Amino acid sequence: MSQRVIAIEDKLYRNRYKVDQDSHLWIKDPSMCLKCPFNFRCIRVCPTDVFKWEENKITITYDACVECGACRIACYDIGWKNPKGGFGISYKYG
Amino acid sequence: MAEKFDSVVVGAGPAGIAAAFTMAKAGLSVLILERGEKPGAKNMFGGVIFRHHTEQIAPEFWKTAPVERHVVEYQYWFLTNDSHVLLSHRNQRFNKTFNAFTVHRAKFDPWFAKLAEDAGAVILNRTTVDDVIKENGKIIGVKTDRGDVLCDVVIAADGVNSMLSKHAGLRDELPPEAVVLAVKEVIALPRQRIEERFNLGPDEGIAAMLVGWGSGMHAGFMYTNRDTLSLGIGISLQDIDKSGERPHILFEQFKNHPSIAPLVRDGELKEYSAHLIPEGGYDYVSRIYTDGMLVVGDAAMLVNAINWEGTNLAITSGTLAGNTVIEAKKKGDFSSRTLVSYRQKLEESFVLKDLKKYKDVPKFFSSNQQFFTLYPEVANELAYMWHVVDDETKDAHLKEMKSTLFKRRSRLNLLKDAYHMWRLMS
After folding, report:
1. ipTM, interface predicted TM-score of the complex
2. CB spacing of B185 vs A11 below 8 angstroms
3. How far is A42 from chain B (nearest CA, A)?
4. Which structural domain, as residue segments, surrounds residue B393?
């Protein structure tokens, strides 16, 4: 099997985004992440690698988000709102 | 003083547009709020729209709408990691009477939204609704990032993540088992090459469902568009949690499967998208009406995961919601006492009848994963044994096939599985 795995950055580079200066995603209580009961489910379910564990906290690259909502369902500590009108992912095909 | 409309529709997808179209055509004042830069900008699906229900809004829409191809063949692939068994149905009747069309939502949805606009509805793009406005416990409008709007009835057509349903107190956060995460790529190929690879005439297309690869309960999907392919997978969030495999890695494994790779070879990636599909079924359809608000489409969890239908349920629910608001307007009563008739209409239509019929299926499949793993493997093993030629007699081959089957699944369990499937479908 020829395995040509495309890195997620190279996939997202094809998408069109209008990036807001404010994040529509946040961690409600960052101290909860230190004893995450879900084994970092936010990192694992996200299809666009928005969440990373860096220096004892979850970092959020919100500009990569395609607004699927998987993280929100995976963890109640994720704050999620729709980006402001016109911002965020803007599909050309969909 | 905020402006007031008869109805504010939140979300310009198929459900919202059907509702807006229905109400505007009856002379109601309708405002559609869309948070994307245009309708469809936030939308992704497999997928197809269905002729029958789309025609109820726009007769012979394919003559002017930006459709890709009409489906003439449905394929069901049963994969192992290095083989497949393919079952397919092609029918010339699908060329005479179209059944379904592949579309790109970012192109189709703006066209569909224009119909509501032409009927008199006003569309405001780039507008995010942040909350509902309540007065004496009754919803009387919405708060947006451009200001407040008042109305008699809000139609929540804001998709699977329906923040409006949450704000209105109609539902809590969805449980993981209620949704499937779909990850998809749009892959460009010259039109002629698509027609050669899939054995298609001009404008003809295929819709394919693929199960059995990897481990666990994933389903792949593949649709031919004019000069692109839509290739994707649906994965349950619980499955990702258990398997530890990342969605995009699973997708890459799927795309590199030796039976799939030749179909997408030399294609150019155009877009990568992800979306939740509300596949939980009837039991997860929560409260969809309250004083001053109705919930339609994905926001109401109206997806038939067995037949892979969603846009038709969306359009129908939107139309029924629109009709309900028209009745409420005549009565001058927008409380749930009148709006309950939306739920009744849905229960009487194919929408909730179908979901009710299949209500136990999602649970059944998630606790009976042999249908996604063991059976595809067995089918491939048996197919291989049937075809492979060696010095053994056919009698020996057939015996070996039988013993392989019963080794993988006991006679009793085979009977049980067949019985349960029969029960689910009849």
Report:
1. 0.95
2. yes
3. 10
4. 363-425
